[in-house]
Amino acid sequence: MKRGILAGIGAYTLWGLFPIYWRWLEQDPAIEILAHRMVWSLVFIMGILLLKGELNWLKDALKNRRTLAIYATAAALLTINWYTYIWAVNAGYVVEASLGYFINPLVNILLGVIFFREKLRMGQLVAVLLAVLGVVYLTFNYGSLPWISLVLAFSFASYGLIKKAAPLESMQGFGLETSMTFLPALAFLLYRQSVGIAAFANQGVLITLLLVLAGPVTAIPLLLFGYSARKIPLSMPGFIQYITPTLQLLLGVFLYREPFPVNRLVGFAVIWIALLVYSLEGLVINRRQKAGRSLVKMA
Fold first, then answer.
1. How many other C-beta atoms are found inside a 10 Å radius of the C-beta of residue 242?
2. 246-267, pLDDT tens digit by residue?
3. Is the Cβ–Cβ distance between 243 and 13 less than 8 Å?
4. Euclidean distance between CA atoms 32 and 185, whole angstroms
5. How many CB atoms are closer than 10 A to CB 83?
6. End-to-end CA distance of the chain
7. pTM
8. Residue 11 backbone phi and psi in degrees, to 5
9. Contact in structure between 133 and 279 (CB atoms under 8 Å)
10. Which of the 8 DSSP states describes residue 73?
11. Domain map (residue ranges) of the chain
């Protein structure tokens, strides 16, 4: 389990440091960075699957309409999430982006209620209401809805929801998702290259290398997360997942000097309290369930 915990911490830490990576490419359009991320992610993942001899699943997957529909939807949601995040980071909204991943677990609860008719426990209800209150407070204080946070939270939560019905393993599924975006992304990059406005090979070795490495940089945290999810209890990721938005928030405030006045701090604090209620309630329920199982075994 120790390796699983370390892998999980590694995945969430790398995700938390993503703003630094995308900021190195801030002179380039977010849509071009996104296209490179799609292309090189597929190259990297398919390379791994090829080395492992795990491409037999692809033929059957391409013949199954339901599988294709699931992963096409997942690919669309991932595209929205990736583009929004890259644009937000490079436009100076790292703090607002971090808020999206703070409220993501609570959006997961809402989607569970809507799509799976799950009943909210009292602690979950309190957490969701507090999060809504925090978002409303931020909206009134800034005069506009924190749309970046909401797009990131709902797109990623919806992506997770879709993946619950996904029949393929995580690496295979990610390969199929990126294969669906590969051709449009590649065509876009070739067009930019043909008219002489592409970043690739035109802005120096470092920029070109960073664009190519966008694939491994994207895939490695996903692989670490997949390994971690198989090795540690379900309750554990609930706590370590906050490493990502916490690091992003710290980078936004202290490295990139984004404004973080008291009224924004108050809104964030309300949402942090919601997450504390959510996490502690989940921990208590988990311990009760373990105690119940122990009593059953003793009986």
1. 19
2. 999 999 999 999 999 999 999 9
3. yes
4. 8
5. 18
6. 28
7. 0.91
8. -65, -50
9. no
10. H
11. 2-107+151-262
